[in-house]
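Example 3.2
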Amino acid sequence: MNEAAEPKPEGAGALLHSERRRQNLSLGDVSRQLKLSVRQVEALERDDFGPFGGPVFVHGFVRNYAKLLGLDPEPLLRAADEKLSPLIEPAPEPQAEAVRRP
């Protein structure tokens, strides 16, 4: 448990981290209550959403963490979406077939 690694000052993770510390909860306390590993909780607090398998899972974990801490999840979800947007790739547009001339 490395609590010395502070999250970046912006984003959902920083808010979750600071509120957890304010409530004097350890990473272990949160991981047990959310049924996540300590590493997953640390990743959420760093806004490192890559390991979570997609935005739907990130939203669920952020929402549950916010509720555990008594926070309104909506602003945190919007902040998470800002971090997720580079991870969400738009579907490729269909390419027009080249017209062949005889």
